[in-house]
Amino acid sequence: MQDDFADWYSALWPRVLRVVTVAVGDRDLAEEATAEAFARALARWPATAEVTSPIAWLQTVAINHVRSRWRRGRLERRALERMAGQPQRHPDAPEPRNDALWDAVAALPSRTRHIVALRYIADLPEAEIAVTLGITRGTVASTLSRARQQLGSVLSSPTATSEEIS
Amino acid sequence: MTPLDEELARHLRSFPAAPPRPLGEIEVRARMLHRHRRVSAVGLTVTAVAALTVAGTTTSWWGTSSPFDSGPDDRAAAGPLDHAAAPVDCPQTVGDAQAAVDQAVTEGVRHVADTTDVPVPLRLLWSQEAAPAPETASATDYTAAADLLAPYEDACAALPMQNLRLVDLDDGTVTRAVSVSYVDVPYVRDPNAEARTLEAGSTLISVSHQEAGKDGVAASWGTAEGSWMVAGSPLSDDEVVELALAARYTDGQISLDQWSIAADADYMVPARAGNAAVGGVFYQVENDELILTVDSAKENLWLRARVGDEVIEVNGKPGLLHAEPVLVSVTWQVAEEVLASLTTHNASADTTLDIAQSVHPAPGDDPQLIASWQADPASSG
After folding, report:
1. pLDDT tens for residues A100-120?
2. Coil, strand or helix: which one is B94?
């Protein structure tokens, strides 16, 4: 199809996949959902190219795709495992190099993970996160504050430091 | 951003990401979505998808791990029965059917705008004394998705599918939970998903990779006439072989009369099928510690049974308690065709059961419900 979509796709894929992975807590599922989101974008191309915040749009489609499947029961068990901070491991996907941080992120409540992903990976401002998720800016701020404390303690621990990304 | 924010961002953005899927895959999927958007609705082979769901496979459009997926060459096997009835682009394979159902769910989904619009049997809430107030509440109505599919039941050749869930109990605990499925499409063996094989007479049974840390078994076999799958635990190789020899599909029904496991089962219930797999209303209330979901998708409690579940009662209704080290869930049959499930994070089984026992019908003007209601869903794309 369109060359401009191919460029758009390859440029946005890594960041969208990371956002969805952190939000979902399951890299296997995140990859499927991210691919679905890009396919839906292509099905609407070139209108999708005009979206103001493509990362926010794509991650929303991907997360909704996950929820749709979760709702239908297929992935309920895996979703529950994610809630417990036991992310599934995709045998062929690269592992995060800072496992302590990954585990800490995976153990966060689902909405907190989603907010963390949008703030730190998608680089969305708090106001835009609030609009994207349909919550107040105050909730975004307080949730980020709690997450910052939890994840910050992991980053400052000696174990995490020793696994620092080289 | 503070230095800590910057450090967090740096670490999170450096998590390795799998490379993009081949663009060709995205294009094929996009064309399928586009095609389904052009036709006004989709055909029906929902049953096949429902069966795969119940069987617990991770089959998806993106993956071809299902032994039930038939390739393009098989497309002549099923076809429109009466194109004059409606200009329907009927799905021909399980993969097409799943995409069609996904599309119907996407296009037919409707967020419930107001708490008073939630059907009464679903609008439940735990008591304030039992657990902290909910932070978010929402409901999604999928009945329009089912409506999108319904008019095409007569126009398209459905893939006949049957699914049976067998559950054994011992002293109030689930000791076996197995799903047997059949779909009327040629069997295609998938060596990539095969860990080993078994022989049942002249039939070769493909045993799929088992998930690490789980003792479940998934096996499939079939002929040019149709495909079988069994998934669950515990299942010995001998039991799988016996099933392959005993299972029959006649007059649109699975018969397991000759399988000893079925003869001894405490419950043998058909799984969701047809539009029931898609329709219904899904209501969810949660805070950081627990999630309460209520689903009116015509599910039977025993379809949710897992090995180790304890049979319980919740306010006089039959239920199942599933306890893991961190997660505890209680699922119960609130009403006919309405299942509720409450899952806690880091709470004991007793506490979880107490919270479940406190769940009660909530009025539409319940202040907690109104305060937590999410009336504006994100775009479904």
Report:
1. 888 888 778 878 888 999 999
2. helix
CB contact under 8 A, B17 and A22: no
From A158's Cα to the closest Cα of chain B, the distance in A is 15
Q: Determine the residue among B5, B14, B26 to mutate to test chain A binding: the one whose Cβ has the most chain A Cβ atoms within 10 Å.
A: B26
Q: Which of residues 70-109 of B touch A (CB under 8 A)?
A: 102, 105-106, 109
For chain B, domains (ranges, CATH) are 21-107 (no CATH), 111-149+276-372 (3.40.1000), 161-272 (no CATH)
Q: What does R_g of chain A's alpha carbons equal in angstroms?
A: 16
Nearby residues of B350 by Cβ (< 8 Å), 6 or more positions away? none
What's A118-162 look like in SS3? Answer: HHHHCCCCHHHHHHHHCCCHHHHHHHHHHHHHHHHHHHHCHHHHH
Strands B317-323 and B310-314: antiparallel
Domain count, chain A: 1
What is the domain extent for residue A34?
A: 3-162
How do the pLDDT tens digits run along chain B, 381 residues long? 788 888 888 888 887 778 888 888 788 777 766 554 433 222 223 333 333 332 333 333 333 333 333 333 332 222 333 333 344 566 666 566 666 666 676 677 788 989 999 999 999 999 999 999 998 888 888 888 777 776 555 556 554 457 889 999 999 999 999 989 887 777 878 777 788 899 999 999 998 765 544 457 888 899 888 889 888 888 899 999 999 999 998 877 788 989 999 999 999 988 754 434 567 888 888 887 788 889 887 678 998 898 899 999 999 999 999 887 667 889 999 998 899 999 887 789 999 999 999 999 999 999 999 999 986 544 333
Closest CA to B369 of B292, B296, B295, B297: B292
d(CA B331, CA B340): 6
Q: Which phi and psi angles does B219 have, rounded to 5°? A: -140, 150
What are the strands, taking DSSP E only, across B264-365? 267-270, 281-286, 290-295, 310-314, 317-323, 327-335, 338-345, 360-361
| Facing residue for A31 by CB, picked from B18, B106, B326 | B18
Structure tokens at B339: 């299942």
* A114: CATH: 1.20.140
Sequence-distant contacts of A103-106: CB under 8 A, at least 24 apart: A104/A150, A104/A151, A104/A154, A105/A22, A105/A25, A105/A151, A105/B12, A106/A25, A106/A82
Q: CA triplet B83, B86, B91: central angle to 5 degrees?
A: 70
Do residue A35 and residue B327 have CB atoms under 8 angstroms apart? Answer: no
For residue B381, give the DSSP letter.
-
Burial of A102 (0-12, 13-18, 19+ CB in 10 A): buried
